[in-house]
Amino acid sequence: MVITDSGGLQKEAYFAGKRALIVMPDTGWRELIEIGWNKLVNIHDIYINYQGIVYERSNSFRKTYIYGEGESARKTFEILENGIGRQFCEKKFEDIQ
């Protein structure tokens, strides 16, 4: 669990698999609020009801991979190594010569 008022840290927390309480009136990362991963809170709410908020946020919530699963480089390499990518690259190389 992360408590922050940093726009960058809230997204970094997502990539690290940590949920965040955002102490701001709004955030640029609305998608993380909409899926329920992060929550906008008032600093007074944290002070008064910290344990309740942490319990609510830490219940069994499955992470949603809204930005992908970090597999794009491997998948791109496989495409280039096997199949269409190789044929495309060989054809373009022949055009240059």
Outline the fold blueprint:
Layout: E1 2-4, H1 7-15, E2 20-22, H2 30-34, E3 38-40, H3 43-58, H4 72-81, H5 84-96
Task: Explain what the structure shows.
By secondary structure, the protein is mainly alpha-helical. It folds into two domains: 2-58, no CATH class; 68-97, no CATH class. Helix content is 55%, strand content 9%. It has five helices and three strands. It has helices spanning 7-15, 30-34, 43-58, 72-81, 84-96, and strands at residues 2-4, 20-22, 38-40. It has a three-stranded parallel β-sheet. The longest helix is centred in the middle third of the chain and has 16 residues, at 43-58. It is rod-shaped and about 65 Å long.
- Strand arrangement, largest sheet? 1-2-3
Count of individual domains: 2
Let me know the largest β-sheet: 3 strands, parallel
Helical proportion, percent range: 40-55%
Unreliable residue runs: none
What percent strand? Answer: 5-15%
Oligomer: single chain
The run of helices and strands is: EHEHEHHH
Indicate the radius of gyration in whole angstroms.
21 Å
Name the structural class: mainly alpha
